[in-house]
Write a structure and sequence with these properties.
The complex is a heterodimer of chains A (about 375) and B (about 350). Chain A is mainly alpha-helical. Chain A is about 70% helix and about 0% strand. In chain A, β1 and β2 form a beta hairpin. In chain A, α2 crosses α3, α12 runs antiparallel to α13 and α13 packs across α14. The longest helix of chain A is centred in the N-terminal third of the chain and has 31 residues. With about 350 residues, chain B is of the alpha/beta class. In chain B, the strands form 2 sheets. In chain B, strands 2-1-3-4-5-11 form a 6-stranded parallel β-sheet, with helices on both faces. Chain B has a 6-stranded mixed β-sheet with strand order 7-6-8-9-10-12, with helices on both faces. In chain B, α3 packs parallel to α4 and α8 packs across α9. The chains are: A mainly alpha (about 375), B alpha/beta (about 350). The interface between A and B is large, with 62 and 55 residues.
């Protein structure tokens, strides 16, 4: 590795690191204004995220879906698409994997589990295909369509597990008949569950390894294959890409399908590894957090892993922080929001720390392309 | 550039709303000394430490969480404990964190843990099985099978709904009353609603009761004041003149709509739910004749005191009090015979000579 590539890595890391640092400082300021003790809060946060084996396990557990939803948003950014739909794709992935997981008793695990995972991916792929195709064929902007599809996904998911109520409504097809008035699915069969690496009380499953592998795979696809090159070219300048003979329509649809599949896989892993069932209160919040993860990771798959780890740690430490210092855990959301603001608007950070503009802006991160192309 | 700007605007909007919601809601809790996980200084009363885990939402939500926390606070203070050391709470951010939050208290050596709400039932049962020496109180968690160290604090919502219905039927001049309710997915809400209908029919078998449940999921059903207001408006249009709003801020929306309607307090009335909403929802004063209450605070205090005094953990279900709140400003406007009738019904329900007829 030569000096210039080292410098480039340094430059890539600079803004995210400063953004996180600034967010923590502003977060401390907010706590101080509200009369709380920021030092005690951050001590609790670190304890809760890394202070014990159980804390580490919580961090890793929270990180796993964030890696995949972060990748989902990041991959779309590479093609100049803003996938706000990771949340809906996550939910659809969850529902599809559960539908397979609670059916087919007696299948051996080596068929049942992959089948359930694939069902989750397929659901996500479909939920990504719709906005991709609508964009290409009708010009409908993917931001609007994905936001709308989030509602469709969560209401559809709610319907599948609806308990029926007292007015004689028909219960949903996935509802657990043994749950009485509670809307939820039964637990998936043992053969469809992702095995534990460490069982109770740590509850870490092999899904985390799968997520890391997928991140490596996405890095390879984006930076080492023709497809990845085509995607990045479309993202950087789609007119030039078309001129260069790249099938922009196909790349747009394909990227949205991959993005959807990643978020769908996140839902499948979270369900088959951890929750073992779906209930309407399991929302696709990690889908929205994926936006922060992707931006903080500079839309680089390896950066996404790092930022998912950081956000996972923030989530994991929140309860302990609240417990030790009495600071409301909402401050975590404030910090995450500030991180998002600072990475999305790097000018603030540049002004704040008097940084010069990077000399070579060849690979400037492309976030999203415009309306009605 | 245009493209980038769009992304930034979207992100900033997101950030701004997050910031707003977080800032306005931050609870100025006193910073507590670090407990460090081990046994702290010997507490005066038999080393009792009380922890409370809220359902998703705030500890000062003027409803469930707050009533339970009031109970913990009063019981703890009476036992000579201090907040932060002897009793404290964790606000749950995400329904997946229930178990983790309960575990925080277990790890820190808290021996009484109160969990608030139907949704925490499963996590509470699991924690109770794993920690047989810790006493758990699960509010609104009906216990199918009794555990020795877990009390399900439940209420006869149908009875307090029945009283509300009886009151409504006696106040109604149009012969139509209404109930705007949170989701029928939560059994206590159905008990309130059905009790209300039965109570109204007990007074006047020909009365029309317009009962509407929120059509959405649990996550939306209690936080949708717009729907509550719109549904109340519809009921008023259909000549309903007493409206029972039961379902968190969804029900509050209904109450506020009635309070703003013409004739509020003279021709149209409203009835609140869970706590005495005269205290918690001043905006409803113009129409609020009473509330169908579940007495969470005194029940929590009773259970904790029981444990503190004798070390007994109440097993199975414990039925807390339920009944109507005071009439407040409507005290003089409600005819004496209505009050007498309500007293008669309450007495009948209490001694078992009268049943609501509600089948769970």
């Amino acid at each position: 590795m030569n000096a210039s590539s080292l410098r480039r890595i340094g430059q890539m890391l600079l803004i995210p690191i400063l953004a996180v640092f600034t967010a923590l400082v502003v977060g401390a300021l907010v706590m101080w204004i509200f009369g709380d003790d920021p030092l005690a809060a951050y001590r609790g946060l670190i304890n809760g995220a890394f202070g014990s084996a159980r804390a580490w396990s919580t961090t890793i557990r929270k990180m796993t879906p964030l890696i995949l939803t972060g990748l989902s948003v990041a991959v779309a950014f590479k093609a100049g698409l803003f996938n706000i739909g990771a949340s809906g794709q996550f939910i659809i992935g969850t529902v599809c994997s559960v539908a397979v997981g609670i059916n087919f008793p007696g299948l051996p695990a080596f068929i049942h589990l992959p089948l359930a995972l694939l069902a989750g991916i397929a659901g996500g792929v479909l939920w990504g295909f719709i906005p991709g195709a609508l964009k290409v064929f009708t010009g409908a902007h993917e931001v609007i369509v994905t936001i709308m599809l989030n509602y469709v996904a969560s209401l559809f998911a709610g319907w599948t597990v609806y308990a029926g109520g007292t007015q004689g409504q028909t219960p949903g097809p996935l509802w657990d008949t043994a749950a009485g008035p509670i809307s939820r699915t039964p637990e998936v069969f043992e053969s469809a569950r992702i095995p534990w690496i460490f069982g109770d009380p740590y509850r870490i499953h092999w899904g985390v390894a799968l997520a890391l592998l997928v991140a490596l795979l996405m890095w390879w696809i984006i930076f080492k294959t023709t497809l990845g090159f085509a995607t990045r070219t479309v993202g950087a300048n789609n007119k030039a890409a078309r001129y260069a003979g790249i099938n922009v329509k196909w790349i747009t649809i394909l990227t949205m399908m991959i993005a959807g599949g990643l978020a769908g896989l996140a839902g499948a892993i979270e369900t088959l590894g951890l929750n073992h069932r779906f209930a309407p209160e399991f929302t696709g919040g990690v889908g929205f957090d994926g936006i922060t993860v992707a931006l903080l990771g500079q839309t680089n798959p390896l950066g996404v892993v790092l930022s998912a780890f950081l956000l996972g740690a923030l989530d994991a430490g929140g309860a302990r922080m609240q417990f030790d210092s009495g600071v409301a855990a909402d401050i975590i959301q404030v910090i995450q929001a500030l991180v998002l603001a600072f990475v999305a608007a790097p000018m603030i950070i540049r002004q704040l720390y008097r940084l010069r503009k990077p000399s070579d802006q060849v690979e400037a991160t492309v976030f999203s392309s415009g309306w009605g192309r | 550039m245009k493209e980038k700007r769009f992304a930034i605007v979207v992100s900033l909007l997101l950030v701004f709303t997050l910031l707003l919601s977080a800032c306005t809601a931050t609870v100025p809790a006193a910073p507590a000394p670090q407990t460090g996980g081990g046994e702290a200084a010997p507490a005066p009363a038999a080393n009792i430490k009380i922890g409370l885990v809220t359902d998703v939402g705030r500890v000062n939500d003027r409803s469930f969480n707050q009533s339970a926390w009031e109970g913990v606070k009063q019981a703890g203070t009476a036992l000579g404990l201090t907040e932060g050391d002897g009793f404290k709470y964790i606000e749950t951010q995400d329904s997946k964190d229930y178990a983790d939050n309960i575990q925080q208290f277990v790890d820190a050596g808290f021996n009484v843990i109160v969990t608030v709400g139907f949704a925490l039932g499963e996590a509470t049962t699991k924690a109770a099985k794993e920690n047989p020496d810790t006493y758990f109180i699960g509010i609104d968690q009906f216990q199918g099978e009794a555990l020795p160290n877990l009390t399900g604090l439940v209420f006869h919502e149908d009875q307090s709904g029945f009283l509300a219905g009886a009151l409504a039927a006696q106040l109604s001049k149009t012969g139509t009353i209404a109930a705007v309710l949170g989701t029928d997915l939560v059994p206590p809400v159905v008990a309130f609603g059905t009790g209300y209908e039965l109570g109204a029919k007990y007074i006047n078998p020909d009365i029309t009761v317009l009962t509407t449940y929120h059509p959405g999921e649990i996550s939306q059903a209690f936080v949708d004041p717009e729907w509550g207001a719109a549904t109340a408006k519809q009921a008023l249009d259909q000549k309903a003149d007493v409206i029972f709003g039961a379902g968190g801020s969804t029900g509050n929306g209904a109450l506020q709509e009635v309070a703003a309607a013409p004739g509020a307090g003279t021709d149209v009335f409203c009835i609140g739910v869970d706590t005495d909403q005269w205290e918690t929802l001043p905006a409803a004063h113009p129409c609020l004749v009473s509330s169908a209450m579940k007495l969470i605070t005194p029940s929590v205090i009773d259970l904790i005191n029981n444990y503190a005094a004798s070390g007994t953990m109440t097993s199975g279900n414990y039925f807390g009090g339920a009944g109507l709140a005071p009439f407040h400003d409507f005290e003089d406007k409600i005819p004496q015979e209505v009050k007498d009738k309500l007293d008669e019904i309450a007495a009948g329900l209490a001694d078992g000579s009268l049943t609501t007829g509600y089948q769970p």
